[in-house]
């Protein structure tokens, strides 16, 4: 314990006491500050907080009890250990000192070695307590972050499983419709061929011709194949949506796979399509895709889709907040935009992805903490402060890339992701 040092503030209105204690502590390696009254001590502490305070009880003006009470009431000084120095021998005074928050007391007249031993002991205890509190706070933050990460991962896994299940359930009826429409087109073509040949060799009677006129047979022969082609195009579109859903819901826990990141973006935008549409507060959000010529990337596609989802969803949340706070006439059709750009960085053997918006932007303070665990600017209950922290972890730790943000208040924000190709 002899190696423990620190700044000790001695508060006493007796010069002889100040001289003796100051010399004792200085010789032991402590830094010493002195004050001759409670008022002077409080002013000094405003400038520099000591590691321990030796405080006399009986002083003119503010006595030691009141000085201690004010120190304990301040968040800045409530954890500083206070040792009272008192000539009062009654038990009530000693109890009052301890109840006010003092950690110990030294009776006057005091012995230098006793004062030195008590100072060292309480500084050692204070150091250990601070160290333990820091460790507990760190472990608590890590535990909360881990728990929230598990919740977030399970949520994304649940979404993926739900999406994959929907896509799987769609496959059978879609396949049936696609095949049936194709067969129907062939059957109708054969029937029309037969009908045309029959009409050439066997002119219809008046009654048959009348029914033909009522049915508008030429129109049916022209429009029915078009109708079936339109139906087949709609089926193909549903098949494309189903394929996008399966792309988004890909799970990859063991190894990387070669992936087209554009497909990942398209599938993510499909999931968010309902949120991009106009609502009661704002018009539809415009998404501008400026895809460059990029190769496939060896990655964990499901995790990168989660990164895209978190960043895009945050942008949508921000536009919703602006629209609810701003006058309706200030948010016009097409005024809210999200831009997605991709490019090859050949010299770095990496792909660069930029996701930008023209929203309200961020302050420097927000930018400094945007990727921190549990940091959020959203209202209570609307954000966990985990989405961007997980995105940063996925990009930097899992994929060895980088994730940064550029933003100016009132000018929007742009997230830049760089992923090594291999």
How would you sum up this structure, described in words?
With 422 residues, this protein is α/β, with parallel strands linked by helices. Helices cover 55% and strands 16% of the residues. It is built from twelve helices and twelve strands. It has helices spanning 15-27, 38-47, 64-73, 91-99, 112-201, 206-215, 217-248, 261-271, 273-276, 301-325, 364-369, 387-398, and strands at 7-11, 31-35, 52-56, 82-86, 104-107, 257-259, 286-290, 297-299, 337-345, 350-357, 402-408, 412-420. It has a five-stranded parallel sheet with strand order 2-1-3-4-5, with helices on both faces. The mean pLDDT is 83.
Element order: H for helix, E for strand:
EHEHEHEHEHHHEHHEEHEEHHEE
Strand content: 15-25%
Overall 3D shape: rod-shaped
**Assembly context of the chains:** single chain
Number of strands: 12
Total DSSP helices: 12
Q: Tell me the major beta sheet.
A: 5 strands, parallel
The percent range for helix content is: 40-55%
Alpha-beta classification: alpha/beta
């Amino acid at each position: 314990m002899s190696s423990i040092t620190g700044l000790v503030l001695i508060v006493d209105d007796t010069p002889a006491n100040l001289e003796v204690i100051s010399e004792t502590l200085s010789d032991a390696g402590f830094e010493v500050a002195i004050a001759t009254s409670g008022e002077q001590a409080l002013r000094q502490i405003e400038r520099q907080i000591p590691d321990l305070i030796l405080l006399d009880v009986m002083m003119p003006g503010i006595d030691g009890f009141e000085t201690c009470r004010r120190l304990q009431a301040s968040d800045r000084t409530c954890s500083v250990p206070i040792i009272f120095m008192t000539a009062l021998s009654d038990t009530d005074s000693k109890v009052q000192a301890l109840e006010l928050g003092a950690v110990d007391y030294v009776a006057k007249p005091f012995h230098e070695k006793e004062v030195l031993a008590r100072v060292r002991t309480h500084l050692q205890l204070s150091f250990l307590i601070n160290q333990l509190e820091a460790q507990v706070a760190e472990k608590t933050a890590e535990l909360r972050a881990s728990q929230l990460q598990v919740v977030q991962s399970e949520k994304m896994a649940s979404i993926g499983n739900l999406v994959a299940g929907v896509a799987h359930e769609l496959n059978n009826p879609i396949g049936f419709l696609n095949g049936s429409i194709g067969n129907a087109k062939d059957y109708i073509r054969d029937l029309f061929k037969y009908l045309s040949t029959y009409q050439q060799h066997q002119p219809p009677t008046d009654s048959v011709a009348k029914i033909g006129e009522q049915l508008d047979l030429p129109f049916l022969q022209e429009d029915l194949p078009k109708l079936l082609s339109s139906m087949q195009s709609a089926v193909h579109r549903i098949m494309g949506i189903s394929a996008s859903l399966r792309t988004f819901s890909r799970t990859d826990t063991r190894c990387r796979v070669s992936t087209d990141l554009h497909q990942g973006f398209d599938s993510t935008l499909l999931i968010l399509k309902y949120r991009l549409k106009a609502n009661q507060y704002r018009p539809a959000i415009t998404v501008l895709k400026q895809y460059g010529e990029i190769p496939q990337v060896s990655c964990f596609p499901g995790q990168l889709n989660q990164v895209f989802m978190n960043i895009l969803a945050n942008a949508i949340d921000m536009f919703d907040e602006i629209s609810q706070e701003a006058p309706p006439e200030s948010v016009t059709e097409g005024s809210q935009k999200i831009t997605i750009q991709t490019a090859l960085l050949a010299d770095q053997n990496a792909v660069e992805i930029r996701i930008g918006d023209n929203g309200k932007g961020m302050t420097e303070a927000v930018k400094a903490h945007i990727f921190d665990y549990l940091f959020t600017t959203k209202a209570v209950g609307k954000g966990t402060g985990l989405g961007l922290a997980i995105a940063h972890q996925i990009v930097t730790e899992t994929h060895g890339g980088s994730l940064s943000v550029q933003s100016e208040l009132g000018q929007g924000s742009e997230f830049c992701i760089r992923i090594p190709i291999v």
